[in-house]
Each structure stands twice: as structure tokens, then as C-alpha cells.
Amino acid sequence: MYQLGKWRKWLPAAEWWYNTNHHNSLQMSPFQALYGYKPIQMNLRPDSTLVAVVEDWAQERVGWNSLLKENLLKAQNRMKQMADKGRTKYYGPYQVEHKMGTVAYRLKLPAGSAIHLVFHVSLLKKSPKGAQINTTLPALNDDGEFGVVPSAVLDQGTIFRMGQEVDQVLVQWENIEPEEATWEDWSFIHAQFPTFQINQS
């Protein structure tokens, strides 16, 4: 926790927060359950009072709110990054040529495709309405796997990992839908694709 030595100072504020926020089990706040009315919310802003101690407290509160928002954004980015790493990448869309039984489909892949044309339904997903049908397959790398290369950087940001700032980029991959873009460390992208330039779109 940030500034551990000040916990005693913030304990009343934490208690107020706990007692004035909605609890699912009560379907109301503990304050409302005890007193029968909703608590009055303090809306103190810097420069809204002439009392120096209250002004200092309001300034500190603004700083804490900024820190909390920043930490929540970092946590959100970490969770998204972890989710993106496990997400399956889809290629296409390609036209369904024929249904083979109840769980397999033959796709109409581009001429010269060196892969089997029949796919289990678990490997397929419905394409968005009006999507253009692809006429090419992504290139294979030396291991015979689809090699994905970055096509654009959609956004940039910085996260903290193990106390260090890490520059990241939101990468749009070639032949992959924009919603499948992933956050990657810039150092990784630069090492894997040294000729790739950041042109944020």
C-alpha cells in the first residue's frame, strides 16, 4: 500500500467509505441500514474552503484520487494484456464451401494453400456481417506456423512492471481483425521486427 506509515491518518476515511458505500448483501449502505437515510456525500474540492487544514486534506484527497485512477488503469492494462496473450488468433474470413457432418466444415482457401481444408467448428468463428473474404493466407514461418507481423500501432502507453517503466504499443497484426490487436512491449516488437516503424494510426 502507498505510504504505509500514514494508515492511522486514513483509517477514519476508510471507515467512512466502507459504511457509506452500497453493499450487495444489504442492498444499501451500512449507514442507511443504521440511520434510515442515505449518507451525505462530501464534495470538497481544492479552493472550496478557507480552513487551511480542510484545504490541505482536500488537496491530498485529489492526489489520492489521481493515484487511484492511475493504478486502476495500470491494473486494467495488465489484465487485458494477460487476456490477450491467451486469446486465439483468427485468420480470414474465408468462405464455407461445404458442411462435412455435424462438427466440421470445408473452407474455400486460396489456391496453393498447404493446409487441410476441413476444420472442426471449435476452430472457426462467424465473421462480422459484410466482411471482405480474404484471398490470401498469412505467410508461414520456418517452423511451418503462421507468422504474424505487425501492420500498425494503434496506441502507445507505459506500464510499471517490477518497479520499472515499460513502454508498450497496441499492435494491429497483419491479416488479423482490429479487435484482436494486442498490447506488446515495445522492446519485444523492436527485437522481433527491427525494421518496423511506429506510425500510430
TrEMBL record:
One of its GO terms (molecular function) is nucleic acid binding. Residues 77-126 form the Tf2-1-like SH3-like domain. This is Tf2-1-like SH3-like domain-containing protein. The gene is LOC113696854.
